[in-house]
Amino acid sequence: MNKIRKGDEVIVTTGKDKGRRGTIVRRVDDEHVVVEGVNRVKKHVRPNPVKGEVGGIREKEMPIHVSNIALFNPAAQKGDRVGIKVLEDGRKARFFKSNGELVDA
Q1: Total of domains in the chain
Q2: What is the pTM (predicted TM-score) of this model?
C-alpha cells in the first residue's frame, strides 16, 4: 500500500519549491510523482507542421521524488508523516503520525 496516492494534497519539504502545496496529478513509478504547480521547467519545442504544432517555449511539470514531499495535514496546517494500520474489520488505512487521525476517513 502506497503512503502517497494520486489526488492527495502534499507540501514540498525540500528543493527550489519548498513550502509550495499542490495535488498529485500522477505517479510516474514507485518513487516519483508529478505534483500540480511544482517543479515546473521550461521546454524548448521545435515546430512540427505535420502535427500542426507551433514551436516555442512551454512550461511543464517534472516528476519529484516522494522523499521531498509530505502529505498535508489540514488539522495541523503542515506536512505530516503517514503510517499504515490495520482496522478492526481487516482493512488497511493511512493515518497521520502526529495526531493519529485517519487520512481516508
Answers
A1: 1
A2: 0.84
